[in-house]
Amino acid sequence: MNKIISAEFLAADIKRFVIEAPKIAAKRKAGQFVIVRIDEKGERIPLTIADSNKDQGTITIIVQGIGKTTKEINSHKTGDFFLDVVGPLGKPSHIENFGTAVSIGGGVGTAIAFPTAVALKEAGNHTIVINGARNKDLVILEEELKNVSDELYITTDDGSYGYHGFVTQKLQELIDSGRKIDFVLAIGPIPMMKAVANTTRPYGIKTVVSLNPVMVDGTGMCGGCRATVDNKTVFVCVDGPEFDAHLVDFELLTKRNRTYNQNEKVALESHLCTIDKAFFEAVKTETIHQ
Amino acid sequence: MPPLTKKERMQIPRQPMPEQAPLERNKNFLEVNLGLTEELARMEAQRCLQCPKPVCVDGCPVGVQIRDFIQLVSEGDFLGAAAKIKHDNALPAVCGRVCPQEEQCEAKCVVGVKHDPVAIGRLERFVSDYERETIGIRTPAIKPKTGKKVAVIGSGPAGLSCAGDLIQLGHDVTVFEALHEVGGVLIYGIPEFRLPKSIVKAEVDALKTLGVEFQTNAVIGFTDTIDELFESGYNAVFIAVGAGLPYFMNIPGENYNGVYSANEFLTRVNLMKAYKFPEYDTPVFDCKDKNVAVFGGGNTAMDAVRTAKRLGAKNAYIMYRRSEKEMPARLEEVHHAKQEGIEFVFLTNPLEFLGDENGWLRSVKLQKMKLGEPDASGRRRPVPIPNSEYVTELDMAVVAIGNGSNPIIQKTTPDLSYNKWGNIIVDEATMKTSKEGVFAGGDIVSGGATVILAMGAGRTAAKAIDNYLNSTNHR
Description:
Shape of chain A: globular
Radius of gyration of chain B: 23 Å
Oligomer: heterodimer
Low-confidence stretches of chain A: 285-290
Shape of chain B: globular
Order of helices and strands of chain A: EEHEEEHEEEHEHEEHEHEEEHEHH
Strand content of chain B: 15-25%
Distance between the termini of chain B: 59 Å
């Protein structure tokens, strides 16, 4: 059982949890993840560690409520518990002083890219952060990123805040302006990571992405998280999660991530039905009490 | 009643195991075998000749005193029999169910020379169930505490048997498990219908009562390294992490949706209870009215195909590249599978999975094989028959061709010796590794084997660890 020290929404459906997990906090390195299970019937959900505090023995995760389980995670509040938190899993990010490094986060990927951006900065890189969101309301971690980057660009798809456009357009502008870029890290939705890979490929800029396949155990035992990188099958949980963006088969990853879409729908519908029922029961009880 | 003569004993037929009707059980996850009744058990025990030199014991990797416990069964002292077994076996109810007795103790049974051997496994199962269901599992006495601490990595059969022996020898034992439940392959791999999880849990609880501590969600290598375990006060370490890295066939199309490793398919269903989706959150491919093929011929393949059938598969096939005779699965499992309507396609090898534009498996291209000369395993090597390729429709495929060694310990413990497959190299008499105070056993040493062989390795290691801890210069 791991206690939730604090839980707060950063944007609609995106919640930040600080969890008691002293062992993981002491051990984890940028790029690694944990697997969280909320209760006896819960799925094992892999989540990148966004931050940690060794002294307080806590780790931070940031969760976007999309399916049944992530929505249930996000219904947890300060003082609640998660049944299981295991980690740190996966290989840490490869960090060195590349020179100028660009860390690109899209949506909740911003949270996942955050620790690596910090590590890149600490390693001496001139660190540029591009943080993309659909609109102003979904921009997260702006203050935090400002503190750890040399340059910060916020982009929104609808232009409601910061630069109007996609992260790749901003990246292309930086490249076109003649900036020498030595390293790019991109974490976010698959179409975004693929677009970043396509943007940097002609220039031969070393580019790394963090993959987010479906996982079960997270320790190499099941092989469910396999992806194709450089025409070879890899297990993302033990061989990754970070890989050379120019070698990843994004199309395969997209398709494999849809394996349980139908089941997800069923689960979410039955979950929402339960909530509706609970709501109905609550209203009924209240009415009776009145 | 005077004791039976040898001849009279030999005339008693092997007592049948009561079981669920095949076409009923292939629609549920309840246990297939129902267990012997008291009468059947006593009758079966009468068949034992009580040999002066019980060779059956030589066939048991953990050395259960088989003749003596069977004598107690025949006398109706079932609790005495249970205690006798537990002297050598920490998980009797598990072993009574999943050990391949026909290759071990029962293969050596003298009665078996002319007749069917004594059903040792069924009797083992009977007495351990009897004890648990009547008075609850009793725990053996433990020696005075030595003050020494042992870390066991992995809570599968090797880890549990080693922990069971070490705690009885007076050492403190902590078992570290990467998953959220204790039991390793007994929990995630072997299905409920063959080994109910409540039985694993009861035997684990008995170890807890003895004082064994369990830490789940502990991935040794990441959570703590082996060196850190020593630094935190452990005097010896036993690595029993299992194989745990599924092999694929490396044929085109293996990453289509609907193609699983046996580990993933079984873990989803057994550990995560996907057969109860959406009550449980983890989904698995909906097999209902679908064509499912499992590639492989071992016990895991049988578990996977029978699971798929229970999930509603219209056609559930075993596809195996050799013939029936070469299949490594237990005869009982093959027999049960056939009864349940599993279709066996022998001498057939997959060449390629074919899918649709959305990435879903649709069919498989197969090739007919014939048997050639024996290979390194002593089994006749399958050879392709030219121009025998054909395509068959398939909605789900499970690859059950074994496991390689999991890389986590190797990556985080470079100062251990490994072979080229990543298995840890040990001295087989003691399970001692190249690293001071570190022992290893089970599938991480031997490659994929059986529950009882892993338990045997656990026992051997426990003995060696005890000797090591009693020596003057240990860590």
